[in-house]
C-alpha cells in the first residue's frame, strides 16, 4: 500500500512521461509516431533493470523460469498492433512457427478450460519454458520480476518485487499508453485486452495463409 505522498509522486511521474510522449508523437504522423515510440518505451523499461542490477539489487528471474507466464496479461490495442507489426517482419519460417505454436496453444488452453480443473495453462507464446517473442514482448512482461523464485514456484499469490522498480516501470507504461491513446483512430477500443487473444486477432491475415 502506497502512502498519499507516494501515490502523488507516482501520478506525477505518469503525467511527466505522458507529456514527453505527447511531444514525441507530435513530431510524426500516425502510425509512424506510434511505431517509433514503443521501442523507446521498451528500452527505458529494460534500462531500469540494468541500472538496478548495477546498483547491486538482484532479481531471481532467469531464462527457463516461466512461472509468471501462466497468468492473464493485458495490453492496449496500440501496443498489440505494434508487436503484431514487428512479428510480421520476421523471416517467413520463424513467423509461421509462431503462428502454428499459438494455434496449438489455444487448442490446448480450450481443452484445459473445458476439463473443469480450474487451470489456466501457460501462455500460448511459451515454448520450452521460454518466450517465443522475447525481444518483442509487451511492457507488462518486461516489468515483471521476482526476488524469490521459490515463492513463484510455490504459487504464492504475492510475489516479492522491488517496489521502486515496479512504480518506475508502471509510470513509463501508463504515461506512454495515455499519450498513444490520444492519437489512435476514432473507434479504437480504449480498454485493455488479453494480450495473446488480441495478438491472434491482429495476425488474422497471416493466420488464414498459415
Number of beta-strand segments: 4
Structural class: mainly alpha
Percent helix range: 55-70%
**Number of separate helices:** 9
How large is the share of residues in beta strands?
Answer: under 5%
SSE topology string = HHEHHEEHHHEHH
Shape: globular
Number of domains: 1
**Main sheet makeup:** 2 strands, antiparallel
State the end-to-end CA separation. 47 Å
Weakly predicted, low-confidence segments: 206-210
Mean pLDDT across the residues is 91
Strand ordering within the main sheet: 1-4
Radius of gyration based on Cα positions = 18 Å
Structure summarized in a few sentences:
The protein has nine helices and four strands. The radius of gyration is 18 Å and the shape is globular.
Amino acid at each position: 500500500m502506497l502512502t498519499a505522498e507516494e501515490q502523488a509522486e507516482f501520478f506525477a511521474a505518469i503525467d511527466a512521461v505522458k507529456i514527453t510522449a505527447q511531444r514525441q508523437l507530435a513530431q510524426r504522423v500516425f502510425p509512424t509516431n506510434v511505431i517509433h515510440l514503443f521501442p523507446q518505451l521498451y528500452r527505458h523499461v529494460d534500462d531500469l533493470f540494468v541500472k538496478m542490477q548495477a546498483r547491486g539489487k538482484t532479481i531471481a528471474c532467469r531464462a527457463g523460469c516461466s512461472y509468471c507466464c501462466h497468468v492473464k496479461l493485458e495490453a492496449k490495442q496500440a501496443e498489440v498492433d505494434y508487436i503484431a507489426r514487428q512479428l510480421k517482419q520476421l523471416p517467413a519460417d520463424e513467423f509461421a512457427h509462431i503462428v502454428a505454436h499459438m494455434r496449438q496453444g489455444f487448442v490446448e488452453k480450450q481443452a484445459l478450460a473445458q476439463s473443469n480443473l480450474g487451470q489456466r495453462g501457460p501462455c500460448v507464446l511459451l515454448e520450452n519454458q521460454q518466450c517465443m517473442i522475447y525481444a518483442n514482448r509487451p511492457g507488462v512482461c518486461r516489468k515483471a520480476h521476482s526476488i524469490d523464485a521459490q515463492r513463484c514456484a510455490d504459487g504464492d499469490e504475492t510475489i516479492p518485487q522491488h517496489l521502486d522498480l515496479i512504480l518506475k516501470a508502471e509510470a513509463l507504461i501508463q504515461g506512454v499508453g495515455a499519450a498513444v491513446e490520444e492519437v489512435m483512430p476514432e473507434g479504437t477500443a480504449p480498454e485493455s485486452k488479453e494480450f495473446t487473444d488480441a495478438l491472434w486477432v491482429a495476425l488474422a491475415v497471416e493466420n488464414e495463409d498459415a
